[in-house]
Write a structure and sequence with these properties.
The chain is mostly helical and 420 residues long. It is built from 15 helices and no strands.
Length: 420
């Protein structure tokens, strides 16, 4: 007697991944990051208004901004160590409160004491620097691995949106408020950044090891040793430094000169910088939804696209070509940044993630002022076309060379295809 074969019960499809934008914990973190981004980008603009109102001289402005950069660089490594040995949420809280406390000090020194403003700017930079690696590590604690690329894209959109909207919003408010009030408003934004984000998972806090006995230097060196375990990270950092210290620095100096001398208008400068930010927003939107098969190679290709910006400034092209080149550069930079941050959160040991992230910020941000300081003399010595050509070549070639590192193809030491 024949029997009817039993039909196998079909497997239920996996439930769709819930959007990270519907996660209250992430939305709180995103709001805090957005507030810190607005505060960061608004401060130089407000200080520029102080110069226009003759409350601060040009030399004083340079000193205050330099102090903020120095504070950032001094604190970013410290913040990375603290965030790997203590609650990341607490590091965000206290560093943002420190940056917020600098705002009333800046307001008190305005028109009275450049020394006080310089010290306050250093405190603001230190708060900003200390919270950056903590925010990176807190994102990994708050969001599960499958949604981190989407989360990092949302974070970078907050940063780019702050870049685009911060100065515009400040300019609008400046029509109704004086500079001191605007500085206090920046302090309020830092207060939001301190208080709004929630903490990571309780399990993540329990996993953090106790502070080591070797002191800060030994703790930071552990982060460097962890970074060296990931050749793709070192290659990416080298490529990022080349693009920022050479490409970005060259275009920052050359674009205003070319906009004035070649095109006879400030419109090209404003349009190109706006196109770069809008392109970056578009790039973040694209990479939030796409997962390239060889994400490392795709990311390095995006980073190399910045070379079109200095290349467009070399040639007597229509200004629309310059604007388009900057839009492409903006798209490319986020096609690199989002997978880069996501891979770091995935591949680096959780208890060393903040220190490795701080190394990223320290090297890339730290060498940018060096590039800016050297580009202007190089232009005087070799001419703007030669300098732009060399920087464009570096933007194209260094990421291409970095992509040749074996683990760079997937931003992982192990090929995903070999994993079970």
């Amino acid at each position: 007697m024949s029997t009817t074969p039993t039909s196998a019960t079909p497997e239920s499809p996996a439930p769709p991944t819930r959007s990270v934008l519907r996660d209250p914990a992430f939305l709180r973190l995103w709001a805090g990051t957005t507030a810190s981004g607005l505060a960061t980008w608004a401060l130089p603009f407000v200080l520029g208004l102080a110069v226009l109102h003759r409350d601060l001289g040009a030399a004083g402005l340079g000193l205050v901004l330099a102090a903020r950069t120095a504070g950032f660089l001094a604190a970013v490594a410290v913040g990375g160590v603290l965030a790997d040995r203590h609650s990341r949420r607490a590091v965000v809280l206290w560093s943002a409160l420190a940056a917020g406390a600098a705002a009333p000090l800046l307001a008190a020194g305005l028109g009275r004491s450049v020394v006080l403003m310089t010290a306050a700017a250093a405190l603001a930079g230190a708060g900003q620097g200390a919270c950056r690696p903590a925010f990176q590590a807190l994102t990994a604690e708050t969001v599960d691995p499958d949604r981190r690329q989407q989360a990092n894209a949302a974070m970078t959109m907050a940063v780019r949106g702050s870049t685009l909207g911060g100065p515009a919003l400040t300019a609008l408010l400046a029509a109704f408020l004086d500079v001191r009030t605007l500085l206090l408003g920046i302090g309020l934004l830092w207060l939001i950044a301190a208080l709004v984000p929630g903490g990571g998972s309780a399990a993540a806090d329990k996993e953090l090891p106790a502070p080591g006995a070797g002191g800060f230097r030994a703790e930071f060196m552990e982060g460097i040793r962890e970074a060296r375990l990931h050749p793709w990270f070192l290659a990416g950092l080298a490529a990022l430094v080349a693009v920022i210290a050479l490409g970005y620095s060259a275009t920052s100096v050359a674009l205003p000169l070319i906009s004035r001398d070649r095109y006879g208008t400030e419109w090209v400068l404003a349009a190109a910088m706006t196109a770069y930010t809008v392109g970056a927003l578009g790039g973040a939107l694209v990479i939030a939804r796409r997962r390239p098969r060889s994400q490392g190679w795709a990311a390095f290709a995006g980073l190399a696209a910045y070379g079109f910006a200095p290349l467009s400034l070399m040639l007597p092209v229509h200004p629309g070509v310059v604007v388009a080149a900057y839009a492409v550069a903006g798209i490319g930079i986020e096609l690199f940044n989002v997978p880069w941050f996501t891979a770091t959160q995935r591949e680096v040991a959780p208890d060393k993630l903040a220190r490795v992230s701080s190394l990223d910020f320290l090297v890339s941000y730290g060498l940018a002022p060096v590039g800016l300081a050297l580009i202007a003399p190089a232009i005087d010595l070799f001419g703007v076309t030669a300098v732009l050509a060399g920087c464009a070549a570096a933007c194209f070639l260094v990421p291409a060379a970095a992509a040749l590192v074996p683990s760079a193809r997937h931003f992982a030491r192990t090929d995903p295809a070999t994993k079970d």
